[in-house]
Predict the structure.
Amino acid sequence: MLHSELIPAADKKSRRLMIMLHGLGDSIEGYRWWPGALELPWMNYLLVNAPDAYYGGYSWFDYPNNVAPGILRSRKLLFGLLDDLVAKGYPADQITLGGFSQGCLMTADVGLRYPHQLAGLVGISGWIFELDTLLKELSPVARQQRLLLSHGHFDSVIPFGPVRQQAKQLKAAGLHVEWWEFPKDHTIYGAEEIDVIRNFILAGYEAQ
């Protein structure tokens, strides 16, 4: 069971929900600013802690060592979280799944395998785990999923070039990938990147 915290929308009837997955060593506390920055009053937000303690925060998988066991474990936990939210009345197509760094990896890993179409996937400054395997294990609705990927030219943690190549491979496989590059390090690029994310989220709901 993952520890999470719901920040409700101003509109109490809204079932639109964004799940935000933090990066290595971060936690729910690191994303309390997120709802205020996106300025979407009808959006509910679920902030989630990764399962493993890591230097005062949490981790989705053991990095940079053998990442596979932790990713597979966290994938299962996040599938369970999504299923539980749907059972609680948040329709899958009203859920946006997003994450930063490790959280970005988990967003793509889970979102493109999840059997129900989501409103959108937002991956910031991360990478794809075992891309060839992912392409073999895509869900039946994966090519209808909308995926935003953004990365920094000067990322000192996850190099820019290989991630851009992964985005190209996803597009070549027929996936709906919106790719953005920013002159940033391993961070969120302020209001400019927030605007891109907000517009991507809005477009997903407007298309319904």
